[in-house]
Design goal:
Belongs to the transferase hexapeptide repeat family. LpxD subfamily. Its EC number is 2.3.1.191. It catalyses: a UDP-3-O-[(3R)-3-hydroxyacyl]-alpha-D-glucosamine + a (3R)-hydroxyacyl-[ACP] = a UDP-2-N,3-O-bis[(3R)-3-hydroxyacyl]-alpha-D-glucosamine + holo-[ACP] + H(+). The protein is an alpha/beta fold. The chain folds into three domains: about 90 residues, Udp-n-acetylmuramoylalanyl-d-glutamate--2,6- Diaminopimelate Ligase, Chain: A, domain 1; about 200 residues, Hexapeptide repeat proteins (UDP N-Acetylglucosamine Acyltransferase, domain 1, 3 Solenoid); about 30 residues. It is built from five helices and 38 strands. The strands form six sheets. The protein has a ten-stranded parallel sheet, with no helix packed on it. A ten-stranded parallel sheet has the order 10-13-16-19-24-27-30-33-36-38, with no helix packed on it. The longest helix is centred in the C-terminal third of the chain and has 18 residues.
C-alpha cells in the first residue's frame, strides 16, 4: 500500500482534520508503539496517558480527547470505527490466490465470473457458480451445485459441501466447514439410525466465518446466516439454526439445532445455547453463558462464574449443595412465625 496523505484519510472517514493535511501516512499502529509516518487511535479515555507520549504522526480521536493530543489528529465520534476503516484502506493482506492454478481440479460445467482466482489443489465440483472476483484458496473443496457471490474470499482448506449458497463480500477463514451433516439420529432400541440431512446452508452478504468453525446443513429446512453475521474461530452452528442480521458470535461458542437467534445480538466466547429455543433481537450474552430457554427481552444476560481461589470455590460448591436443606429450614421457620402471628 502506498502512503496516503492525512487529508485523503480525513476525506475517506468524513473526519475533521486538525494539523498538516500533507502528512504522509504509511501504516497503522498502537499509541505506545506508533512512530513517524504511522497513525494511531484513541477510543477509550483510560488510555489518554499514552496519548501525551505517543510518537505517532497522527491520531484518530474524539473532540473530548483533542486537547490532549500532541500531534495531528482526525476527529470522529467513533475513533474505533475510524481505525477500522483506515486499516481496511491500508490493508496489505495478500489474495487467497493470484491466478487459476494448473493444479486446481475444476469441473467442466463450473461457471467462473470475471477475475476469479483458484489456488493449487482446490477442487470445484460440477454445477458450481462463482461470482466475479471470488478468491478460492489452496486446498479448498467446493461441493456440487454450490454458489458463491462476488468478491467472497475463502482462505486455504475451506470445505463447502453440496448445495451451499454464500452471498457477496464474505470471508471464510481456513478450516471452516460449511454444510456438513447435522447431528440427526433416531434411536431404535439402543441403535442409532442416521437421519439424512436434506437441507442446505444459506449464507447472506458480508458474513465472516472464523477458522475451524462448522456450520451444519439443515435436516429438512435450511440453516441460514443472514447478512452481516460474524462468527469467530472454533464455533459450532447446528442444523436448522437461523441467525439474524449483524449478530456476532465469539470463539468456542455453540448453538444447538433449530434455534433462532435475532438481529444485532452478541454471544460471548465459550457460550452454549441449547436447541429449539428463540432469542429475540438485541440480546447480548456475556462469555460462558449457558442458555437453556428462550429470551425475548433485549438486554444483557450472564450465567458463567468468574474463577476464584480453589479453597473459596470448594466452599461455595459445598454451600450450593446445602441450599436444599437451607430452604427446608427456612420454610419451617416461616411456618413457625406464621403460627405465632
Amino acid at each position: 500500500m502506498k502512503p496516503v496523505s492525512l487529508r485523503e484519510l480525513a476525506q475517506h472517514l468524513g473526519a475533521k482534520l486538525v494539523g498538516d493535511g500533507e502528512l504522509m501516512i504509511q501504516s497503522v499502529s498502537t499509541l505506545s508503539r506508533a512512530g513517524k509516518g504511522q497513525i494511531s487511535f484513541l477510543s477509550n479515555s483510560k488510555y489518554r496517558s499514552q496519548l501525551a507520549d505517543t510518537s505517532a504522526s497522527a491520531v484518530i480521536l474524539t473532540e473530548d480527547d483533542l486537547p490532549h493530543c500532541p500531534c495531528a489528529a482526525l476527529v470522529l465520534d467513533n475513533p474505533y470505527v475510524g481505525f477500522a476503516l483506515v486499516a481496511q484502506l491500508m490493508d496489505s493482506t495478500p489474495a487467497a490466490a493470484d491466478s487459476i492454478s494448473a493444479k486446481a481440479v475444476i469441473a467442466e460445467d463450473v461457471v467462473l465470473g470475471e477475475g476469479v482466482v483458484v489456488g493449487a489443489n482446490a477442487v470445484i465440483e460440477a454445477g458450481v457458480i462463482l461470482g466475479d472476483q471470488v478468491q478460492i484458496g489452496a486446498g479448498c473443496v467446493i461441493g456440487r451445485n454450490s454458489r458463491i457471490g462476488a468478491r467472497t474470499k475463502l482462505w486455504a482448506n475451506v470445505t463447502l459441501y453440496h448445495d451451499v449458497e454464500i452471498g457477496e463480500d464474505c470471508l471464510l477463514q481456513s478450516g471452516a466447514v460449511i454444510g456438513a451433516d447435522g447431528f440427526g439420529y433416531a434411536n431404535d432400541r439402543g441403535r442409532w439410525v442416521k437421519i439424512p440431512q436434506l437441507g442446505r446452508v444459506i449464507i447472506g452478504n458480508r458474513v465472516e466465518i472464523g477458522a475451524s468453525t462448522t456450520v451444519d446443513r439443515g435436516a429438512l429446512d435450511d440453516t441460514i446466516l443472514h447478512d452481516g453475521v460474524i462468527i469467530d474461530n472454533q464455533c459450532q452452528v447446528a442444523h436448522n439454526v437461523v441467525i439474524g442480521e449483524n449478530t456476532a458470535m465469539a470463539g468456542c461458542s455453540v448453538i444447538g439445532g433449530s434455534t433462532r437467534i435475532g438481529r444485532n445480538c452478541t454471544i460471548g466466547g465459550l457460550s452454549a445455547i441449547t436447541g429449539h429455543v428463540e432469542i429475540g433481537d438485541n440480546v447480548h450474552f456475556t462469555g460462558m453463558s449457558m442458555v437453556t430457554k428462550g429470551v425475548t427481552e433485549p438486554g444483557l444476560y450472564s450465567s458463567g462464574l468468574p474463577s476464584q481461589g480453589s479453597k473459596e470455590w470448594r466452599k461455595a460448591v459445598a454451600n450450593v449443595r446445602n441450599l436444599d436443606k437451607l430452604g427446608q429450614r427456612v420454610k419451617v421457620l416461616e411456618k413457625k412465625c406464621s403460627e405465632r402471628d
